């Protein structure tokens, strides 16, 4: 069953039992779309991660990426299918790097600290990063989202620094979280938007050459 048909089926059940206005229906449809896309994307991503024995770093990347993305925003693909493919590829590549890169303290700490500094710059300059399809026009909302992004980043940074101060060694999960945050922070920059757009167009071309339909 296509995701659009599933959403219409769920909406039909809601409308059957509740009196929903057009505006409420649109909001509910958008929320269901985001929820179902996230569930499908995360399930596929973690499924491949489990097969390749990189489940835990992949899970940490997803958690870090998703939590920060909920406040700071970022670039999106043009279709649910592209989002799912992009998630599977990018998260698992980063998880592979987290697992197989040297976990020595002298490598992990500079990566984490560099990520921290870059993220503070990106969030201060670009967050919240919206899209033309769903612009954030309320200045108060923009202020709140930026503030929450910075607070969350401060909590993450403090936790990482305390870890390095007390443990004095590298860690695969710390590295995975750092790469997840780095990828998310990159996604809100102008270069990140351009990279997302190029990757999205490449996925569309691949699907067309394979005879598939871009959803």
From TrEMBL:
GO terms for cellular component: membrane. Keywords: Cell membrane, Hydrolase, Membrane, Protease, Quorum sensing, Transmembrane, Transmembrane helix. One of its GO terms (molecular function) is peptidase activity. It comes from the Bacteria. InterPro entries: AgrB. The chain crosses the membrane at residues 54-71, 107-127, 148-166, 172-196. The keyword Protease applies. One of its GO terms (biological process) is quorum sensing. It holds the Pfam family AgrB. This is Accessory gene regulator protein B. It comes from Thermotalea metallivorans.
């Amino acid at each position: 069953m296509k995701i659009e048909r599933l959403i219409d089926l769920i909406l039909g059940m809601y409308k059957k039992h509740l009196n929903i206005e057009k505006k409420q229906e649109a909001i509910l449809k958008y929320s269901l779309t985001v929820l179902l896309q996230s569930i499908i994307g995360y399930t596929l991503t973690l499924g491949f991660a489990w097969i390749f024995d990189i489940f835990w770093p992949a899970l940490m990347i997803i958690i870090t990426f998703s939590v920060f993305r909920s406040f700071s925003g970022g670039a999106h693909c043009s279709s649910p299918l592209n989002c799912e493919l992009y998630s599977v590829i990018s998260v698992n590549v980063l998880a592979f790097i987290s697992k197989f890169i040297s976990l020595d303290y002298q490598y992990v700490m500079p990566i984490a600290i560099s990520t921290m500094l870059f993220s503070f710059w990106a969030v201060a300059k670009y967050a919240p990063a919206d899209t033309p399809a769903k612009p954030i026009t309320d200045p108060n909302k923009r202020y709140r989202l930026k503030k929450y992004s910075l607070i969350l980043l401060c909590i993450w940074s403090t936790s990482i620094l305390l870890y390095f101060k007390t443990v004095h060694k590298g860690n695969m999960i710390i590295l995975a979280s750092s790469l997840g945050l780095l990828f998310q922070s990159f996604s809100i920059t102008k270069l990140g938007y351009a990279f997302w757009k190029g990757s999205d167009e490449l996925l569309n071309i691949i699907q067309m050459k394979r005879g598939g339909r871009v959803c």
